[in-house]
Structures are given as C-alpha cells and as structure tokens.
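Researcher: Sequence recovery benchmark, item below. Answer with residues only.
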C-alpha cells in the first residue's frame, strides 16, 4: 500500500502543478493577440441597459486580455446607433464610450442608417467623426471577419 500511496501523491502533485501553471499564465500568454468585432444593432432597452451591458462586456474583454493585445472594432447600424444617440445625454454611456476609445476601440457607424433615418453624426451622435463612418454596417462586419476578426454580438 505504501508504494501506491506514494504514486498517488505524485500524480496528485503533478496534476496540481499543471493546474497552477495553467492559471498562472498572464493574460497575454493565455489569450495572445486578438482581433474582435462587436456587433450592435439593437435597442438599448430601459435605461439603456443593453447598451451599458455591451460596453461592460467590451471592457471586461480588454481587462482579461490586455489592451495591448486587443484590436477591437464596434460596428453600429440600425437601432444600434441608439447607443451613440443616448450617449449625447447619458453621462454613464458617454464615459463608457470615451473610456473604450481611449483604449483604441474603434466605433464604426453605418452610413446607410445615417442616411435612411436622417441622422446627423455631428448633431445627433456622441463623439463621431467622418472617419468613423463606414458605407454599410453589415458589409463592414463581413469585411472585418474576412480580415480575421472574431465576431461577437453582446
């Protein structure tokens, strides 16, 4: 029995070391470099809860992987432009968007939606510039996925 107990102890110790090594990896070592596109085309709901949740998901992603390891784009079209419309008045959303932009998250706004809904990016949306406008939100999603971006719809 003594030999089996020693063997069992060695196996348990080896398994423990494997788990310790796996959990001790830094974010960069564990996840590596990531290119991700977040797709937002829905209403924010009561108190912009869905938009706040999406911004929190993106920040949590950055926290886990490290901003230096991330290339994140957010594509907004259709009802998703409501996020930047609400952010004109909602200080919580303003802060979340500004914080993500300070970490090099790009926000891409659909020109088709702007034109179709007669939305002015200058007057109606928070912190949007001409270079943030893409011809088509769905075409941009496809283009980014072809470039190797992982698609996430929070």
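Model:
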């Amino acid at each position: 029995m003594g030999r089996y107990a020693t063997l069992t102890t060695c196996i348990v110790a080896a398994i423990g070391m494997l788990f310790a090594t796996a959990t001790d990896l830094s974010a960069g070592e564990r996840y590596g470099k990531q290119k991700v596109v977040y797709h937002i085309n829905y209403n924010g709901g009561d108190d912009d809860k869905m938009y706040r949740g999406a911004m929190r998901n993106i920040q949590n992603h950055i926290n886990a992987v490290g901003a230096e390891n991330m290339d994140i784009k957010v594509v907004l079209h259709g009802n998703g432009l409501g996020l930047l419309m609400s952010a004109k008045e909602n200080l919580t959303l303003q802060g979340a968007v500004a914080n993500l932009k300070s970490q090099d998250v790009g926000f891409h706004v659909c020109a088709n939606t702007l034109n179709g809904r007669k939305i002015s990016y200058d007057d109606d949306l928070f912190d949007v510039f001409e270079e943030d406008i893409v011809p088509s939100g769905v075409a941009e999603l496809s283009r980014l996925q072809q470039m190797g971006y992982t698609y996430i719809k929070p």
